[in-house]
């Protein structure tokens, strides 16, 4: 699987912005592509590919609260995970990309995970993603990625809506 496997993410984001009478800016699309490249690395179970979009001093906070700092540290953190586990594959919806300065942005997304051999997401693994990107020397890089469980204990209907929206994307994400 390659970053192009996440073409649906760009399409969904562009359609979402168009529904609000707004065309995404080129930088917004670059940040979505950056996010998609990171996720493609996860789906490919490639520590190198997943770490590549991070800045040299980037940081990652995992679903379980684990932390990794620096591109090399992120690579070292991910390598044993992929070596010893058949990690589930991501299906995502980008909720927003906000340019907070000409060289800084925040992307928010919802994710579901499909286990190897399964045809559906496991709602217990749904998450909210927050990605902070920085533009350095004309190139966007991930400064911080945080993966937080999205269980919505006080809003079960919201969790069910997100699960349904993610499930609807499984065929075009190539996961069903």
Task: Describe this structure as you would to a colleague.
- It is built from five helices and six strands; from the N terminus they run αααββαββββα.
- It has helices at residues 7-19, 26-43, 47-51, 71-84, 156-169, and strands spanning 54-61, 67-69, 89-101, 104-114, 127-136, 139-149.
- The protein has a six-stranded mixed beta sheet.
- The mean pLDDT is 93.
Distance between the termini: 14 Å
Strand order of the largest sheet: 2-1-6-5-4-3
Largest sheet: 6 strands, mixed
Radius of gyration: 15 Å
Secondary structure: number of strands: 6
* Poorly predicted parts: none
Tell me the overall shape: globular
Instruction: Compute the number of helices.
Output: 5
**Percent of residues in helices:** 25-40%
Q: What's the SSE pattern?
A: HHHEEHEEEEH
Mean pLDDT rating: 93
Judged by helices, strands and strand pairing, the structural class is alpha+beta
Note the beta-strand portion: 25-35%
How is the secondary structure organized here?
Blueprint: H1 7-19, H2 26-43, H3 47-51, E1 54-61, E2 67-69, H4 71-84, E3 89-101, E4 104-114, E5 127-136, E6 139-149, H5 156-169
Parallel strand pairs: 1-6
Antiparallel strand pairs: 1-2, 3-4, 4-5, 5-6
Quick structural gist:
This protein starts with 6 loop residues before the first helix and ends in a 7-residue tail after the last helix. Helix content is 36%, strand content 32%. By secondary structure, it is an alpha+beta fold.
């Amino acid at each position: 699987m390659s970053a192009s496997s996440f073409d649906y993410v760009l399409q969904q984001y562009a359609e979402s912005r168009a529904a609000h009478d707004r065309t995404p800016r080129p930088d917004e699309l670059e940040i979505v592509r950056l996010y998609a490249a990171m996720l493609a690395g996860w789906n490919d179970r490639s520590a190198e590919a997943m770490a590549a979009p991070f800045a040299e001093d980037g940081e990652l906070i995992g679903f379980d609260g684990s932390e990794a700092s620096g591109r090399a540290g992120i690579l070292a953190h991910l390598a044993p995970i992929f070596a010893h586990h058949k990690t589930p594959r991501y299906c995502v919806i980008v909720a927003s990309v906000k340019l907070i300065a000409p060289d800084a942005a925040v992307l928010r997304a919802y994710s579901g995970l499909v286990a190897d051999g399964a045809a559906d997401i496991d709602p217990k693994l749904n998450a909210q993603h927050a990605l902070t990107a920085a533009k350095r020397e004309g190139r966007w890089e991930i400064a911080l990625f945080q993966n937080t469980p999205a269980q919505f204990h006080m809003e079960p209907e919201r969790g069910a809506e997100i699960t349904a929206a993610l499930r609807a994307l499984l065929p075009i994400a190539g996961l069903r």
